Every structure is written in structure tokens, then in C-alpha cells.
Amino acid sequence: MSRSIEDETDTRSVTHWTETYLEHLQARKLAANSLRAYRRDLEAVGGELAELTGTSRDELAMESVTATRLRSAFARHAAVRAASSVTRSWSTWNGFFRFLVVEGAVSGNPMAVVPKPRVPEASPKPLQGEDTPERLLRLVSQGARRARDPWPERDLAVLSTLLCTGLRSAELLSLTVSSLAGRPGERRLHVRGKGGTSRSIPIEDALDEVIRSYLRSRQQRFGERLPGDEALFVDHRGQPLRRGGLQYLVRQSLRAAGISDRVHRGAMVHALRHTFATRLAEDGASAAEIAKLLGHASINSSQTYIDVTAREQRLSVRANRTHQVLGELAPGE
């Protein structure tokens, strides 16, 4: 008979409530990477609290986690970490205490007195160059990516899906064969996004055919039926494509197409998502429309693409040499 969390830990301890909270998050079907990140943040700050109170982390009692100690623990935690990491940890602990308040484990949320770093909003980092996405797809489809076991149909399908839907890496990797559904001309991709939320993205006929071509090549390679619960994208051994394999595929494809220098530093797979969103903004999509397609919880993130697009348009207009000449001809006051 398995032992419960209550049997294994002191119900007054931070460790007990950490495990209870993670169990709660797991029930919401969060991605494994997200759960690991939550655990790291909770255990890292918990370790600082334990040192401050002179106890082991497993013996640290919730009642000893005062606002003053929590503020000191975060100060120590922040000393060797980037602002973005500290902000994520702050959000994790804020969510943790909201859960504890609901459960009646604490009387209030002390995170209001813990300073949170101000992280500047990241600017979109799409692929640079007007024709870069098309060049990438065209060359990959022609087999430009040299590999020991080339599979251009798969590579094209992966890159096309990223560029035409704006999926996050984790979202793409979680797709199954049954995620693609609907009648011809009305096809949609059902996506499980951040926080267990779901959304449905329209699929145009061209992308639908690219994916179908890949699935036909997959059946020819492995000679298998494709049940709906099978991973949509697989590696060269027929196993579900993983994060490292996806990053390698994108990196090598960019290199083969000769456009590695058109990717912002650190963007990689996310650059394709940003390209999708930026083009939506350029074509006049509203922040609400972009938010719905990208799975943003707030339209503020989506508004960034519109603001950046407007700024780039103005800079382009300003660079027009005719305006420079007008500046010379315009009469002064």
C-alpha cells in the first residue's frame, strides 16, 4: 500500500506543502519541464530559508516562514541569479502562497513585501530579412540539409508548422496525429498550451498537404499504422521528437539554408514563432487576434508585436532619401 504525503512529511513543514502544491500542479497537466522548474524554484528559496532558520529544509516549518525571512531568502537567492530567473521564482512562490491561503495553511500571502526585479519586456526576435522564411522552406524542401539519413519531408513539415502556426517548442512536441482534425478546407490543429490551456489554430491547405506528405513518408519509412495518440513528429528512429532534436533540426536547417546570421542571438526555435506573430501584425491583425493564435494569457504580450511593427515602419519611412532632401528644402522659421 503506497504511503501518502501526510505519512511521509510533517504536515506543518514547507516540504509537505511543496509536495502538495506540486501534486496540485501535476493534476492540471502541466508539462514536465514546467513542473521541474516549479520544483527548482521552490527548493532553491526553501534552502535559503532553511539556512536562515538554522534547520534542514525537510524540518523547516511553515510558521517559521515570516515575511522578513522570506525577503532575506530572496535577497540571497537573487545575488547569484539573473533578474528573469528571480522574477520567475517570485511568481512561483506567489502562486505557492496563494495556494496555501486557499488550503488554510497560512493566513496571508507575504510575497507583497518581497521585492520583484523589474525585467524589461523582451522585444520580438523574428528571422531577419523579408524573404528569409521562404528561402528556408524552399531550400530545406530541396534537400539542402545534408544528413546521414536525410528526411526533407519531415524537416519541411516541422519548420512549416512552426512558421505557419507560431507554436512554442513544447506545444509542437506535444502534438499527436489526432491533433490535426477537420474536413478538407476546414482543417485545424488542436494545441495544448501553457498552463494546460487549449486552443485551435486554422490550417491552410498548403500546410495540410505538407504534413500529409510527411506522414506518408513516415509510413513508408517505418511501415506502421499511425494511431491518433502517436506523436505527430518523430525522429529518424521513429521515436517522438524531443526538445534537443528539435533545436538541432532548426539549427542545422538554418545553417544549410545559409541564413544562420539572420537569427537573433539566443532566439533559434522561438525566432520562427516571432516571425509568425510579426507577420500577423504586419498584415493588420489585432492584439486580440494575435493573442488567441499564440496562446497569450494577456493581449499585452501580443501588443508588443504591433508596437514593434509600427516602429519599424516609421524607421523605414524615415530612412527614405526623399525625406532627407525635403529636410534640406523645407523653409526654416
Automatic annotation (TrEMBL):
It comes from the Bacteria. One of its GO terms (biological process) is DNA recombination. PROSITE patterns: CB, TYR_RECOMBINASE. Residues 122-318 form the Tyr recombinase domain. Gene3D superfamilies: 1.10.150.130, Intergrase catalytic core. One of its GO terms (molecular function) is DNA binding. InterPro entries: CB, DNA_brk_join_enz, Integrase-like_cat_sf, Integrase_catalytic, Integrase_recombinase_N, Integrase_SAM-like_N, Tyrosine_recombinase_XerCD. Keywords: DNA integration, DNA recombination, DNA-binding. Residues 12-101 form the Core-binding (CB) domain. SUPFAM superfamilies: DNA breaking-rejoining enzymes. This is Integrase/recombinase XerD.
